[in-house]
Write a structure and sequence with these properties.
Order of helices and strands of chain A: HHHHHHHHH
Shape of chain A: elongated
Helix content of chain A: over 70%
Protein name (chains A, B): TetR family transcriptional regulator
Keywords (chains A, B): DNA-binding, Transcription, Transcription regulation
Number of strands of chain A: 0
Oligomer: homodimer
Organism (chains A, B): Nocardia rhizosphaerihabitans
CATH superfamily of the largest domain in chain A: Tetracycline Repressor, domain 2
Chain lengths: ~200, ~200
């Protein structure tokens, strides 16, 4: 029994990778609402039960597939650019984020997953731990560095700054309530930095 | 045929009211995900087809039921308080909105409907026309009055101000990513007004 373990582990890992690959392929091919665990299992060449052994829901396996495709799969090691100019760096980051959200291929599965998460507390907790918290920590490190450099007010609430930068952008995207172009990103960054001006 | 029309119209209107009442009752009794058109029809004493004749989806009938229960059912006639002090008025409004969102009974159906709307473009269009646009117009009228009074900058982009006030609040609520207390509302209003200070 002990001698067969490594083989079983290798087989498990192969199945896991096949499932994540199949999920990622299918996300690009069919609408999220029409994606099923059955379709993922068939594409990966595994049984449905193999998927349910590791993931509690479609949302959970899609989330892992998207994470595995991300540059920083555990959300760690993320750093915002730091050229020493907080306005320039935030503008770069917000413009890039706005551009990603307007790319339908990138945005469609994220939108579906986000809305699923809003009513699924378990999935939301995984998202918070693995993506939102490491991302927020990275944003706050960059803001902390700007605060040390005297570019934002010493008393500024960094969580509030993060929410003021990303809340309007996320809402415009999710609710399709306004443009998400460079002009919007620039105006938003400028307004938030004025609000926390050190002078 | 012509003589029977008034009766048919009255019967239709009675059914419509019964459906909206039944929906509103059921929203308070069972989880949104478990609410069905069948249950609404049974409670209202009508056939399922009667509901589908007027509403294309569960989300649509729930949305109408919530609108019918609102003080300003067509979103018109809404005005923000105007005491002449924009900081005080926005603080009042944002504190009240944050408090509503933390009330589970108020917030649960709105959350479910919001998430449904994010993936249903038709429902989103109805929401935009009947709720979001009249509400946004009312917010902008109050900001316009503050701008005339010299309390916000003459060049301020009023849509951006609305997004900066409501985006962070909506995101904290939907993603459960932070507190929604008076302290948050106060800090948010103060920061946004600093960003658009006339001086």
């Amino acid at each position: 029994m002990v001698r067969t373990m490594p083989d079983r582990t290798r087989r498990s890992e192969r199945s896991r990778v096949a499932i994540l690959d199949a999920t990622r392929e299918l996300i690009g091919e069919i609408e999220y609402a029409k994606l099923t665990i059955e379709a993922i299992a068939a594409r990966a060449g595994v049984g449905k039960q193999t998927i349910y052994r590791w993931w509690p829901s479609k949302g959970a396996v899609v989330f892992d597939a998207l994470l595995a495709a991300a540059e920083n799969p555990d959300g760690g090691g993320i750093e915002l650019p730091d050229t020493g100019d907080i306005a320039a760096d935030l503008t770069t980051v917000l413009r890039a984020t706005a551009a990603e959200f307007t790319d339908p291929e990138f945005a469609a599965p994220i939108r579906a997953l986000t809305t699923e998460m809003l009513n699924d507390a378990d999935l939301a907790a995984v998202y918070r731990e693995r993506m939102d918290e490491p991302m927020r920590a990275a944003k706050k490190r960059r803001l902390e560095s700007a605060r040390r450099a005297g570019q934002i007010h010493a008393d500024a609430d960094l969580d509030l700054i993060v929410d003021m930068l990303y809340g309007p952008l996320t809402q415009r995207w999710l609710q399709r309530s306004g443009g998400l172009d460079d002009e919007f990103a620039d105006a938003l960054v400028a307004a938030v930095l004025r609000a926390f001006d050190p002078d």
